[in-house]
Amino acid sequence: MDVREYIEANASGFFTALKDWLAIPSISGDPARRGDVRRSAEWLQAHLRETGFPLVEIWETGTQDAPGLPAVFAEWPAADPDAPTVVVYGHHDVQPVEPLDEWETAPFDPIEQGDRIIGRGASDDKGQVFFHTLGLKANLAASGATAPPVTIKMLVEGEEESGSPHFPQLLRDRRDRLACDAIVISDTTMWAADVPSLCTGMRGLTEAEVSLHGPSIDLHSGSFGGAVPNPLHAMASLLAGLHDEQNRVTLKGFYDGVVELTDEERELFARLPFDEAAWLETAGGSRAAFGEEGFTTLERVWARPTAEVNGMWGGHTGPGGKTIVPREAHAKVSFRLVAGQDPRAVQEAFAAYVDEHTPPGVEARVRFPSTGVRPCFSPIDSVGVRAARRAMERAFGTEVLFTREGGSGPEADLADILEAPLVFIAVGLDEDQIHAPNEKVEKPLLLKGAEAAAYLWDEFARGQESS
Amino acid sequence: MDVREYIEANASGFFTALKDWLAIPSISGDPARRGDVRRSAEWLQAHLRETGFPLVEIWETGTQDAPGLPAVFAEWPAADPDAPTVVVYGHHDVQPVEPLDEWETAPFDPIEQGDRIIGRGASDDKGQVFFHTLGLKANLAASGATAPPVTIKMLVEGEEESGSPHFPQLLRDRRDRLACDAIVISDTTMWAADVPSLCTGMRGLTEAEVSLHGPSIDLHSGSFGGAVPNPLHAMASLLAGLHDEQNRVTLKGFYDGVVELTDEERELFARLPFDEAAWLETAGGSRAAFGEEGFTTLERVWARPTAEVNGMWGGHTGPGGKTIVPREAHAKVSFRLVAGQDPRAVQEAFAAYVDEHTPPGVEARVRFPSTGVRPCFSPIDSVGVRAARRAMERAFGTEVLFTREGGSGPEADLADILEAPLVFIAVGLDEDQIHAPNEKVEKPLLLKGAEAAAYLWDEFARGQESS
């Protein structure tokens, strides 16, 4: 029985089990769901044992006083003690589901509808973690071996959708157990169902909250308007000044050290069949592309740093008019970062920018809810990326191109702390509605993911030998 | 019994009745309070009858399909048919009370605390309407007459805090009934408790709501950030661009036709004992004066037009982070206008400004909740202003100076439609916290107001004779 036959024979049971897991509402951002995140970890633990992993553990995170949410670790050593070791990373927690009334089915009552499974976590990230179990069993069924050709260590965390606050510490604490030659990430997307691709980088992220305080009370704009500073005016100017006329971010030193795109990468990106009108349709029917001058839309999203105002508020926001000079204004701002940028340096630059642009009579407070997420980047000619490309090409039977991911994850910490290169292999699609109502995954792509995962371990073993 | 003795003897009952009226939450801006606004009108109707007005009516506003809120009209003819006629204008509706948790007492459970009455409407405007009833009775008690020396027509509207949408039509419909020689306005403030003054003008007002619409759904800022327009960025730029570096409003033609201050008026303003540090303290502890270059703080507030952002909101405003490109942004903006400016022209200029400054891919909608309020202005050497100055000087026993009011009211419509000059006579203070939590009025000043009102009718009759 070859890999593909094994996968086809076991597809139905695979989907049934996945739906079982998706029914657990493991929302890490909701304190009321802590028990569900734990149930999700226990479910996965049981399933990885059933898959055949000789060692499966639940790893607690955080401290006794401030406990985090559990990760799952599993290890299956190769028969050959000299075979390479690979860590497979994913996460078992999911995004919140609001606005609930826009879901056409219950988010935690997953259903199969035609070629799809619909439910929170179907694509991000339970479905993509799960194809590795089917892929590994297919690899073993095809080879007849009782152990994989490389040592496989699965690490599936439970706080990714909450910014992985305890993950770096977990990696540091468990560095010896996680020693590896490469890290396989299955938490991204590929270009399209019929254009398979590999991701080679993700943007970093840092978030800030800024509040501007003026008078201690809202003032009558008739009695005081035009003669005291208005915090909303100050906030508008502050936010408007974050971009220049070329739509470049104006923070001092923001672009220092940015790893620029090479001509080869720009050419490879340009080979992708990108339909901007269709992309705008997926962007909530956005009416026009818009961004940093001198770059294409794909380059802007994948390889350029940005500043984005995520929310702002202040003054009278209810019905009717209220002619006031409001006492305060607030905004939430986030920055997407690319290779060569450091979240802490960007935080410092933003604090300095706010300080410099706050007018007399207004007091600014800036808060950074976390230290941020570092960007990551994998050269396309590395051993691991080459092995993954061959595995994907065997599974899909066609040429595999390269992309990057505009989103952010804890991947940079993995690479830095475990000191190993990253390899992104995934079958999610941009239209999977992750982080939105009606999240779904394409069943045929999950099976292709399992098939690529099955080939990957042989390609890895071969690649390491030849390198 | 002279005027002062009568007022002292009846002060306690006057305050008790006022508190009764203040307990009615006549918030015209809140659709749920329509019944309370009507109750307030009925309360005043009953009280004006009790005062002795031979004719008191409730005047409905709006249309049958779109009813407005009721005004109260009362008329007491002079004994002498050749005596002048004066309309006394005020309003019985009040501002909203949010933020409720900053009130130290319940806004509609008025209390006397030392020299103060605390409650919504105590100063703006129920207290100031009400002193006329005590003043008129004192005038009659002192003269022993059964009718006032001038014909008095009280007109107390119920939609002032909502921009008086139906008031001009009411004035046009009732122009014959409201025929008069002068219009007395009691809805402003004087310089200070120990520096009585008369107001000679009010700024106009026009309000706008603008919303900017981008994608049809909030977008993941990782997948789309930096490549589609962000409505919050567009809003920040739009609002930031409303002022130039001299803090002048940038709308095209905004300053065309503005009646500039004369050197004499600037000199008179400068004679007022203005303590900017103390003023900033009343401005909610504002830390610095700030406004149009080339003008003093008093000039900015009283005689210069402004643009003020009253509220703005969009995107994620709750706790925690949400890295989105939000679908829309909103703002409420208001403009204070001075003599020579037309609200409609400013609305047109603002709509054109928004149109011109909305980037491609963002759709703007601008709404003007009303046609606005026109500015008004009374020369200091007019007959009415001179009579009012004498009445105030008799009540306070000291020189009375001149100010203007930065706020807005339907006074310009009164002057234009009734074709009569305006006279502002009032005893409110800037620190009365009108439009803010903990609104209050000074009881001794209300009694001085009643006294000045009592003298005013004699001064008016005398002034008209000599003119």
UniProtKB/TrEMBL annotation, chains A, B:
A GO term, aspect molecular function: metal ion binding
Stored InterPro entries: Cyt/Met_Dipeptidase (IPR051458), Peptidase_M20 (IPR002933), Peptidase_M20_dimer (IPR011650)
Highest taxon, organism lineage: Bacteria
Biological process (GO), any one: proteolysis
Transmembrane segments: none
UniProt keyword list: Hydrolase, Metal-binding, Protease
Name the record gives this protein: Peptidase
